[in-house]
Specification:
The chain has 578 residues and is of the alpha/beta class. Helices cover 39% and strands 11% of the residues. The radius of gyration is 27 Å and the shape is globular.
């Protein structure tokens, strides 16, 4: 088992840096306090805290500013004082970079939103696509090209659309699409649009135009997507939560771009429905399935570690089941490639074409047995037998036939709504989200560029919060320069992840709407099932206690030894992607 953390003693080897690290961390989270100059000390301190704050007055010109005469001091003195605080803060921050840069987040960690022990789990369930099977980028190109051609050949869209190719780095998962306005955007956990991430076609929409259209940047609840992220029942927003939706968003953007470039008048609602139907046809007609089966090595990433996870669970006497929306032939071909021809021996129940999320709510559909040749049988199902294949059905019948209820069941899937939401809210199963994008984002967060930028961004934000009390024109001129610098850094941190939309998990500072749903519907989350190989089946996952806004940050409480090379995981929260 690879080591996921090193002992605290590694950080304690340099006690001076350790003290400064804690002081710096507390400083970044200071919420209130008036800055004063202590004439008996070399330190400038806050009224809330001890004199061990991070900002020094060594660069203040000799003899001059005290707390009593700040209001009457000259503009030049105030400006000099503000810049001296700025420079010392920046120097102290830069001194901490070598320490912080070594505190990498391990990308093979399992992260917990809710406390859960694997010792309590007796039954493991899995989705198939992007859970057991991972696909190469060729699959999204295939889906895009086929759907684009369906629009042209069957919906009479312009031939000029063939000029557009799939762009793998244009969109990210979790975006919202305003069906009536034909706008793609990222929304945070509080329903606010992240300005700068609103796109019409392939071009960004100016912030002033966005604010005018929405009378601000807040999206009211009544026009947000429904519970499953769909645009229905008066909701005009569609949220794209599925990894398969990446080519759909890209195609929508390309068609919008073509119509605007050629001054073609079109109805955005019709465009959305046509693209949705074309993408659906790629799946429903079996076009994608046949293409993958014909060239499995091109489209499926070989899952040796997936096989190892299943073998580990099986050897430890765990029950396993598969519930997928994909057809049996497609799943069978993929699992033969990933696991081997005996893959069905590992699963106690296999259900295909389940029609999730309807499977979790609709009690009317009975199970139907399918032969190895795809023939549907008509006999009533009294037992779900190992080695057999079942189609459709519903969860209530599944629970009755298996008795697999409550928190002894852990189900893994990649779609937060279709795979996980109903299971955790209605049925009490434990849930694990597979987020493949997580590994890439963690690697970016571990880079020196990101650590350096985020550390200084946090320090500068704290400085702005403290110094905003100086309202005179000279001070406000300095503070405005800091605000401009902060905005530039916020844009840089967004672009590090994705030039158009930034990180999957954060807007500039708030969690994204995607993150909010992830934290609500998934007990644990990870980049892939292979992360389970790093833990024994007695392991308990503990969520990190992060301070609420009114709580004083206590560094040891925020430490989690599971994710860091050294256990300063609390810093990971403050520097999570923008």
């Amino acid at each position: 088992m690879p080591t996921l953390s090193l002992p605290l003693s590694n950080l304690l080897r340099n006690k001076e840096r350790f003290k400064r690290l804690i002081a710096h961390f507390k400083y970044l989270h200071t919420r209130r306090g008036i800055w004063t100059v202590n004439t008996s000390s070399q330190w400038i301190s806050s009224s809330r805290g001890p004199k061990s704050a991070l900002v020094s007055r060594r660069q203040v010109p000799v003899g001059q500013l005290t707390a009593g005469d700040m209001c009457t001091s000259s503009s030049e003195d105030k400006t000099s004082w503000l810049w001296s605080v700025y420079n010392e803060t920046k120097q102290q921050t830069q001194d901490l970079i070598p320490v912080i840069s070594n505190n990498f987040v391990n990308p093979d960690t399992i992260f917990a939103n809710n406390q859960m022990s694997l010792q309590d789990i007796e039954i493991y369930g899995f989705d198939y696509d992007y859970t057991l099977a991972f696909y190469s980028s060729h699959l999204h190109t295939l889906i895009f090209n086929i759907a684009r051609d369906i629009l042209i050949d069957e919906h009479r869209y312009p031939e000029g659309l063939k000029e557009y190719d799939y762009m793998p780095n244009f969109v990210i998962r979790g975006l919202h699409y305003d069906v009536q306005k034909a706008l793609l955007m990222k929304i945070d956990a509080f329903h606010y649009i992240q300005l700068g991430t609103v796109y019409r076609g392939l071009n960004p929409v100016p912030e002033k135009e966005v604010i005018a259209m929405y009378e601000g940047s807040h999206v009211p609840l009544e026009i947000m997507s429904d519970f499953y992220g769909k645009s229905s029942h008066g909701h005009t927003m569609k949220q794209f939560m599925d990894i398969f939706s990446l080519p759909e968003m890209t195609l929508l953007s390309c068609v919008n771009d073509y119509f605007m470039k050629h001054n073609i008048d079109y109805e955005p609602v019709h465009l959305y429905k046509d693209v949705k139907e074309a993408i659906g046809d790629v799946h429903v007609r079996g076009i994608m399935y046949r293409a993958v089966e014909a060239d499995i090595e091109k489209y499926i990433c070989y899952g040796e570690q997936t096989h190892a996870v299943l073998q580990k669970l099986s050897k430890n006497g765990k029950k396993m089941f598969l519930i997928t929306n994909s057809p049996f032939d497609f799943v069978d071909r993929g699992m033969n490639y990933i696991v081997g021809k005996d893959w069905r021996d590992l699963f106690d129940v296999v259900i295909v074409q389940a029609d999730k999320p309807g499977f979790f709510n609709d009690r009317r559909k009975p199970f139907r047995r399918v032969t190895d040749k795809g023939v549907l049988l008509w006999d009533r199902i009294h037992h779900l037998e190992k080695g057999q294949i079942y189609k459709q059905g519903n969860l209530y019948e599944f629970l009755r036939l298996t008795g697999w209820r409550g928190s002894k069941v852990l189900y893994f899937g990649d779609h937060i709504y279709s795979d996980l939401a109903d299971l955790t809210l209605k049925h009490g199963w434990r849930t694990g989200a597979i987020i493949p994008e997580l590994r890439k984002e963690i690697k970016i967060m571990n880079t020196e560029e990101y650590v350096h930028t985020m550390t200084w961004l946090q320090a500068l934000t704290g400085l702005l919060e403290q110094m905003q009390v100086h309202r005179d024109p000279a001070s406000q001129t300095v503070i405005q320069q800091w605000i401009n610098e902060r905005e530039e850094m916020r844009l840089q941190t967004k672009d590090i992840f994705n030039a158009q939309f930034g990180s999957l998990f954060r807007t500039y500072h708030n969690p994204t709407y995607f993150s909010r749903r992830l934290s609500r519907f998934a007990d644990i989350y990870m980049p892939s099932l292979s992360c389970l190989l790093n833990y024994d089946l007695q392991h308990t996952f503990y969520p990190r206690r992060t301070p609420l806004q009114h709580e004083s940050p206590i560094w040891p409480e925020q430490t989690s030894t599971g994710a860091m090379n050294i256990p300063f995981q609390s810093y990971r929260t403050t520097t999570r992607s923008k």
